[in-house]
Amino acid sequence: MHTRDSTRWQHEHVFAQDQVRAGEKRTLLVVMITAIMMVIEIAAGIAYGSMALLADGLHMASHAAALGITFLAYVVARRLAADTRFSFGTGKLNSLAGFASAVLLLGFALIMVTESTSRFINPVSISYNQALIVAVVGLVVNGLSAWILATTPHHHDSHHNRTHHHDHNLRAAYLHVLADALTSILAIVALLAAKYYGVNWLDPFMGLVGATLVTRWSYGLIRDSARVLLDRQANSTMLAAIKDSIERDSADRVTDLHCWSIGHGIYAADVTVVSDSPKSPDDYKSLISPELGVVHATIEVHRCPDH
Fold it and tell me: Of 47, 65, 109, 164, which has the highest C-beta tally within 10 A?
């Protein structure tokens, strides 16, 4: 064997991460829409004295920044996909952006709590009619943005004939605009109650309600994206499927198995196999179903010492 020609045994680690994601263009559109509405709501909230409307505008400001991070992550991951400095490609940039966006969401929730508490102590007069118009427009815009992201088709990998899920980046963008829509609804309810029933305290109270819900969404996204960033072991169902695919109809046994996410619906795996009649690593790799999304597998094979 000509050992000097090592390139024939090497393979690329791009894993289709250089392709334009379905969420990239739609995220850019939502960033532009959000930025415009953000300016309108903040200006209106200050001018008309509505804490709920100002909170909605500040909410959209943080989300415009977070959605910008989301879009940037798509672009950077695509352009650096072939960079050999990334051991398993750039797929984790997706989860890193989702994690960063979730942290921003938590920061926004804290701002909402602070501002709402301040308005309880020092209430201000509200121009209800003007504030309601802006809040309704904001709700329409947020609903449109959420629809744009919710209808984004999942990326389809024709080579493996499977559909990817768990795009933390896209999920983060969707949660941001969904939270925007929620705060718009809360602002409308608070303004209507204050205008017609004199329940002025409801305006800052809705800010607290919105902060609570946003915190819950943020926690869920932080938890899920952190699992990917920390190379958490894949779920038991997937581990069992990999093990069964190798051990099925043979005396081979998987004695050690590690499987973790390296990107948007793709996984790497380290597998140790012990057998009476060992086969080549490629033979064992071929047994792992493409449907599982294991795009990089390292197989260690040992002959059973008791054979």
Answer: 109
Domain chopping of the chain, boundaries = 11-229, 236-303
Mean pLDDT along residues 40-61: 74
- pTM here is 0.65
Q: What is the C-alpha to C-alpha distance for residues 92 and 67, in angstroms, rounded to an integer?
A: 17
Contact 19, 79 (CB under 8 A): no
Which superfamily is assigned to 11-229 in CATH?
Cation efflux protein transmembrane domain (1.20.1510.10)
